[in-house]
Every structure is written in structure tokens, then in C-alpha cells.
Amino acid sequence: MKKTIIALGLATVMASCSSKNISSNANPLLTESKLDFGAPDFAAIRSEHFLPAFEEGMRQHLSEIKAIADNQEKPNFENTIVAMQKSGQLLNRTSEIFFGLAGAHATDSIRAIEEEIAPKLSAHSDSINLNTKLFNRIKTVYEHERATLQGEDVRLLEEVYQGFVRNGANLNSQDKLQLTDINRRLTELENKFDNQIKDGVAASAVHILSADSLKGLSKENIAQAEADAQAAGKDGYLITLQNTTKHPYLAELDNREVRHKLFEASIKRNELGDQYDTQQTIKDIVLLRAKKARLLGKENYASWTLQDQMAKEPQHVEVFIRNLVKAYLPKAQEDTKELEAFAQTLEGNNFHLEAWDWDYYAEKLRKSKFDINENDIKPYFHLDSVVKNGIFYMAKQLYNIDFIERNDLPVYAEGVKIYDVLNQNKERIALFYTDYYRRATKGGGAWMSNWVSQSHLLGKRPIIYNVCNFAPPINGETTLLNMDEVMTVFHEFGHALHGIFANQKYEKLSGTNVARDFVEMPSQFHEHWATDPAVIKNYAKHYKTGAPMPQELIDRLRKAATFNQAYALGENIAAVILDMAWHTLTPESNIEDVRKFEEDALAHFGMVNKLIPPRYKSTYFSHSMGGDYSAGYYSYLWSEVLDNNIYDWFKAHGGLTAKNGARFKELILSKGNSEDLNAIFKEMTGLNEPDVKSLMRAKGLQ
Known about the structure:
single chain; 702 residues; mainly alpha; Neurolysin, domain 3
């Protein structure tokens, strides 16, 4: 998932920001939206509105913060901590809308604005986090009222105080200046990295002239490749890269040479010495992060960023990963031998399996073992049914909520849909936007975030959105999904439910504003329901006939659930290792060769299987280098342990029932960060500690 980054303010930067009156009639961002739920008025918002709104938002925010810091009254929770939560509303509103568009619909003008505004927002944030007068008031409240506050109030106080300490409030003035400079440079570099990634994906698309070279692809995928070529002004066909190393077409393409070409284009993107090459950007980013951590009193960046996570420190992550590797390696070796032997029965004893062959022969082996492949199941997984009869049905069964499509609110791009979310009393509790189709202006991958974040204090109800990158329908055809894409729909919807059920007084504690190694748990937990017997029967219907997926096909699909799971686990473990290796460097580290660094990091854990490459190589690892999940990619696997523990509890208590759903909603989804996360996990499952064996069983490793 992605969280919208809302920065906080700097006086020196704001000296250049105009404080003159700006007409709210001309700029819809300057006033709260009059639309339902405060929905963004995308029909009125234009790119030229953002810079003035950011500047005015920062000016207002600084003024509000100054008033809090200069308040002559004795510091207390209301006049300091709560007052801070009420400040910066224009800036927050502008940021949520802008960064939502920067991810989902980044036109050239939006990208130019992001490049200009990002360092200003970083500096703005530092001016508040490093404000000595403000921090002294926060510290006074923390020392004198912490023992008497309860519930969300004490949780908020602790989060605010610890956040200021973590971000440098106790530094001397010289170190604060150095930290501000580092943060500014990091913001610029992270933005540069993201732009290099986006442009590099387009530049690395694989151009194919002959349709014969695409044998094995479905007619829908061939039509999409032809449409992409036409859009790029090329003859023939164009295969656009995914954000991951592995491309789904590798499982279908009969032509080994084309598979090789596609794999090489994917894994070598952003490292070819051109303007899209990110290797120097990476080295600059990680060393600056190491310097920042050292300045803030930590050994390395991972130690700094893990302070407020469930894992707490890099050593715990390393132990966690080593335990996974120990279980993974024997299964990976077994699967590799089996797959190569199977491929040789088809191609001859002299055939040697390569990384670009794995998915192709794995798909054939799955067909051989379970009499099933993607082409058998895709006709039953059309997007509209997966949404309306899949995730919405699941939500109805578990949480007794309904989704009603509406067409009276403006959207920012073609294909975006909006739904009212109604509770059991038919009260509207949220808006939910879906943006499922790939477009040239959209970043890679899939995510959830908020157009409006929930807060009882501010009287705001949640507006949540899901973004994916599925192939758009061609010539009116239905969009068909593979199993991984179905899981993506359920995954992102799990994040959405975490936001929809947010029920906090303070926005800072609301919804998905939790530790990164907890936030992926609700999303991954909801993936389990994609193959639940009742749910899959409801949405898996043939796109032409409407006939339900035959029970024997469902049975085969479920039997094949753990097939090839060692590959999926291995590619993620490898990515985690790279992320942690980069972020346990010190400022004195000297990295000359990015590829050699990657090879050494993987070898350190015994992860040397060239047939199973990392899910992301460093040069296009936006989770790690773009900032959102730096030293945090382990969170997906950590959270997967949590979600399997919770799913085990569900299975032991009757599975898909409203009673179980109500318990999960009450104890997890509606709590946000208002309580200790370890405590609510224990209350939900009865476990004192997360049990990794659940994940091993789910992956077929035990």
C-alpha cells in the first residue's frame, strides 16, 4: 500500500511563499469541498491550483504552529497536542489530493510540481519537527499528563512525543541544520529515483514485430500488446514491463527467445548506463540515509526506522529471515530439480532450465499435476464479477456492509468508479473509489490510500481508493484476470476495509496509520477469502455464459494452492535481504558495484538460486529506494505470519461468518493505531507471539 506523505513546515522556505489573499473562488483547493463526504472536486481542480494551495497551506500551518509554540498559557494536552491535530488542514487536504494524483495520474505538469514542491514540503516538515519551543511544550505535556490520560489521548501523546524525538527534536542547532539539509537532498533523490523508474519502464518495453513470436499469449493479451504499440507510435506489438522482475507473460509465451528478451529487459532495466540508470541514485540515497541515522544516534538506517515497528530492530528481522530461509531452501531445491526434470521430458535431456523458463514450465507442470492452468481459469475471473460478486460479497458476509455505485461525483480519469459504503443500518459510512486499469500516467503496482482521512475530531468520514494496473478492456472486451491479479484485488480491498472502518478521534491514529509490519496484515488476511468455497462460487463465473466455475475445477484450484509457493516465497525473501542489506550500511561504506553488492548480500543468506531472482532488483525497487518501505519490505512476510495466525483462528471458529467478521472488525480493523498492536493481536488470536509455523503450512513448507 501507499500512504500519502503529508509534510509539515519551514519558515526559511516559506519566506518565498506568498501570503497575499488568494481567491478561493478561483482555486477549489483553498476551501473544503462542498461535495458529499468532502470528495475532491476533480471537475474543478486543475494542476495550476496545487502550487498556490501548497504555499498557502504551508503559510497557514506555520502560523498555527507558531501560535501553539508561543502560547503563554501553561502547556497542556488540549492547547498543545490537540491543537496540533487541528492545524494544517488546508495543507493536509492539498497533499492528499496531489499525492494521490502523483501516483495514479501523474501528468507532466503534476510531475513537474512534485519535483518543485517535494523539497519545500520536506523542509516544512523539518521546521516543525525541529522547533525547540514547540517540542518543549510537547515534552512538558508528556512529563506531566501522560500518567493521567487514557485511551486515544495517551496513545496520541506518546506517538507525538516519540515522533519528535525520533525525528531529531533533541539535536543541537548545528545538527538540526545538517539534518534539514540531508532530508532535503533525500527528498530530491527519492523523487528522482521514482521518475527514473517510471520513465525506465516505458523505455524498456519489449517491441515485437511478428504475431508469430507471441504464440501462447491469449488473444486479449495480444490485442493489448498491439494497442500499446499503436499508442507508442510503433508497428507490431509492445509488451510493457510490470513493476516486478517476473512478468506474467513468461508463463504463456511459447517462443523461448522472446521469453529471454522479456526477462532480460525486466531484470536489467534502470542499470544500462542511460538517463534511466538508477545505480548512482541508489548509492547516494542509502549513504545519505546512513548519515541521517548516525546523526540521530543510530547505528544504521534500519535501526532508526524500525524503532516504532513490531520488529523493533534489524537483528530481529535477520533472525526472522534466516528461519524462513532455513525452511525455504530444501523446498526450493526440490522444486528446481522437479521442474528441470519435467522440462527435459518435453525438450530433451540436454535442456537446461533458465530463469526465463521457470514460469513457462511451471505452468505446464501445474497442468500435468493438477489438470489446471491459467487459460482454464481466466475466463471465470472477469474483473467486474471479482469486484461485485467477490470482494463486495465477502464484505457483506463478514461485515454486513453494502457497496452502491454512484455516478454523480467527478473522477480524475476514465474508468474510475465510486461507491457508497453502507453499514448494516443502511447508513453511509465511507466512499470507495476503484481505479483498476493501467494508463501511461499511472505508477506501477497496486495500492490503497485516502482522498480524505477519517477523524472524529475534525468531523471527517473516510474516502478510500484502490489503484491497480490491469490491462484495460480492448474493443469492449471484458478484462480477465489471472489468479495473482485476483489476489491483488482482494489484497488492496483488505487495506480499503482498514480505512473504511476507521473509527478514531485523531487522524494521526486513524485507519492504516499503523506500523508497516502490521499494516499489511489486514490486506493479506483478506486474500484468504479469494478461494473460500462460498466466495469463489459467487464470483467465479464464465465471462461469456455466466456459468459458475465447475466444482471439480475449484477443487483442482484449491489443491494447487501450494504449488510453486517456494518460488513466490524465495523472490520475496531475496527482496527483503536486498532492502535490509542497503539499510544496514554505515556512512563509511563504499559501494562501487551495485550488482556485486546484491550478489554478496544474497550469498550471505545462502540465496544463490539464479532461477529464482529477487522480486525487485535494487535498480527498480521503489518500495525500498522510493521511501515508503525503506528497511521495511520485510513487513510483507512479517505481516503474512500475523494474517495466517488470524486465519487459523477463523478456521477454528467457523470461517466466513458475520460473528467472526464482527470480532475482527472490532479488535483489528476499527482500532487503527489507537491501542498497542501486539496487544490487539494477542486478544484476537490468543497467541503470546506470532507463530511462523502457520505461514510455513500455508506455503506447503511443512
